[in-house]
Design a protein that fits this description.
Layout (H helix, E strand, L loop, with lengths): L5 H5 L3 H11 L4 E5 L3 H15 L7 E5 L3 E3 L12 H10 L4 E6 L2 H6 L1 H14 L4 E7 L13 E4 L5 H14 L6 H11 L4 H14 L7 H14 L4 E4 L12 H15 L12 E6 L5 H12 L3 E5 H4 L7 H13 L4 E6 L13 H15 L4 E7 L7 H4 L6 E5 L4 H14 L21 H17 L6 H8 L5 H4 L1 H11 L4 E2 L8
Parallel strand pairs: 1-5, 1-6, 2-4, 4-5, 8-11, 8-12, 9-10, 10-11, 12-13
Antiparallel strand pairs: 2-3, 7-9
Helix pairs in contact: 2-3, 4-6, 7-8, 7-9, 8-10, 9-10, 14-15, 17-18, 18-19
Length: 505
């Protein structure tokens, strides 16, 4: 391996480092599945110009429409066919990199081409000649499997995105500090270079100059691109921990773990927070708490809809789930929310598709990138396998129960204040007398109904309006008493209560 200055290695992107290491190992054939062939070409030139050897290596690019083109941009006559291109590579003397675009079709259709590529492999060994095939689809012939290294090109990392942003800002006569470029690059993580370019143009359309105000526009473009999957949703969350009524035990845990997560790059992976499981009674704030986690950790939030994954609209559920997990690893750092996880991972299908998804999930939770914090929520907690909730899978398993009277008062205060109601004349401490067994969602609906009634009558809302709604509402804890008792009993010895005081009713 050639010596490289430390500063050069520090600025090397993940893609460039991967290809450099492949070439340094002496492998003459590499197959990269990607739709970003222009990006591959740029990375190959970057590797060729000083990273791989002291002298730059020539880079030849082949396509079926133009044949082989050298660094000078001029096509080499007589190399338009796949066989002619391989003959040229085999006869070429001296070090070089050859980039073959969409070469999967000739490989698929012609035994002659497959044979000739094996010849190229033999003639290129230890000759410092490297052939890189790029294609949006994977096709590695059986007879070449042991000769070709297959790679999936991951989305550009921060280093590559900063380099891209620096080039784009220079081309558009924009000025941006290194700090702003780093912030924009981190907001773009997970996108392809082309997608990042669209996001940047969206930001420039919203604001003529780049600045901190450009980041929301970039994130909006990212939201549109992520949401196109149909089962992953980018959620713009502005929920603060103070907007969550009660759950003081959960809040304390999150505040303590937040610092550890922010220091994740300097800590042992064993103590970096991996995630938590929130289970409990519907309507008691699990979803709101997840949104508050993302805001507290200052990270984007992505929601995986387990019901949508199993809908059949996105192919086999197993493939969609695995793809979602791998895709979101590229979005790190982020908070990943598995909503109603029991809909996809249950204890009743150990040998079928759900069982395989569960086995993958357990392994993935142990091996995923440390920049991804997983927050899973569940209502039908008795469906979850025992292996899911044992220590080590999640950092903690919390049970979210019906709010205590003092928590109900806090929830009333939050919802009234958020809607601009002056509560100086209210005695909120009296309300829990009328809301025994209520969930947080029921309190919110009570507030909305009372405000609606007052607005229809064109007057300010009063505490009497709240009481009038409350006395007519039958809470979930009464209509589904047996089910809620079952949930509480099941979780009693299996989870930590999100409210430390427990239930006192």
């Amino acid at each position: 391996m050639l010596d490289r200055p430390p500063e050069q290695l520090a600025a090397e992107s993940r893609a460039a480092r991967t290809l450099r290491e492949v070439f340094e190992s002496g492998r003459p054939l590499t197959y990269i599945r990607t739709s970003e062939e222009q990006r591959v070409g740029k990375v190959l030139r970057e590797v060729a110009e000083g990273r791989l050897s002291k002298e730059p290596l020539p880079v030849w690019t082949w396509s079926l429409t133009e044949g082989l083109i050298g660094d000078d941009g001029a096509p080499h006559p007589g190399t338009e066919t796949p066989r002619a291109a391989l003959d040229f590579i085999s006869a070429h003397t001296g070090s070089a990199i050859f980039h073959l675009k969409d070469f999967h079709e000739p490989l698929r259709e012609s035994a002659e081409i497959r044979r000739r590529l094996r010849d190229v492999y033999e003639s290129s060994l230890d000759q410092h000649k490297f052939v890189v095939i790029t294609s949006p689809v994977r096709f590695v012939p059986e007879e070449l499997e042991r000769s070709i290294l297959f790679l999936e090109l991951r989305p550009p990392d921060v280093v590559e995105l900063v380099d891209f942003l620096r080039a784009e800002t220079a081309a558009t006569n924009q000025s941006a500090s290194n700090e702003l470029l780093d912030q924009l690059a981190r907001a773009l993580v997970g996108l392809t270079v082309d997608e990042a370019r669209y996001a940047l143009r969206r930001a420039l359309a919203a604001h003529s100059t780049l600045g901190p105000e450009s980041i929301p526009a970039v994130l909006e473009e990212k939201r549109l691109l992520v949401n196109r999957t149909g089962y992953i949703e980018y959620i713009s969350s502005g929920t603060d921990l103070n907007d969550v009524g009660g759950l003081d035990g959960l809040k304390k845990w999150l505040v303590e773990r937040r610092k550890l997560f922010q220091l994740r790059d300097s800590l042992s992976s064993e103590i970096v927070p991996k995630g938590l499981l929130l289970m409990g009674i519907p309507g008691c704030g699990k979803s709101l708490a997840v949104k508050a986690i993302a805001n507290s950790f200052q990270l984007p939030l992505y929601r995986v809809d387990m019901i949508e994954i199993f809908s059949g609209r996105h192919g086999k559920a197993e493939g969609a789930f695995v793809q979602a997990c791998h895709m979101l690893e590229e979005m790190a750092p982020a908070v990943l929310w598995f909503d109603e996880i029991e809909m996809g991972i249950t204890s009743t299908d150990s040998g079928g598709e759900q069982g395989r998804i569960f086995a993958f999930f357990l392994t993935w939770m142990q091996e995923k990138t440390r920049g991804l914090f997983v927050a899973a929520t569940a209502n039908r907690i008795d469906l979850l396998p025992a292996e899911m909730i044992r220590k080590g899978r999640f950092d903690e398993v919390f049970f979210v129960d019906l709010p205590l009277p003092q928590e109900q008062v806090e929830i009333f205060r939050i919802h009234l204040t958020r809607r601009g109601v002056d509560i100086s004349g209210f005695t909120l401490e009296e309300l829990p007398e009328f809301t025994v067994g209520w969930t947080g969602a029921e309190i919110e609906q009570c507030v909305i109904s009372a405000i609606t009634k007052a607005r229809l009558e064109e007057r300010p809302v009063t505490q009497h309006d709240l009481i009038g709604v409350a006395v007519k509402l039958v809470p979930l804890s009464r209509t589904m008493k047996e089910q809620i008792s079952h949930i509480r009993g099941w979780a009693f010895e299996r989870a930590v209560r999100a409210t430390p005081q427990g239930i006192r009713r």
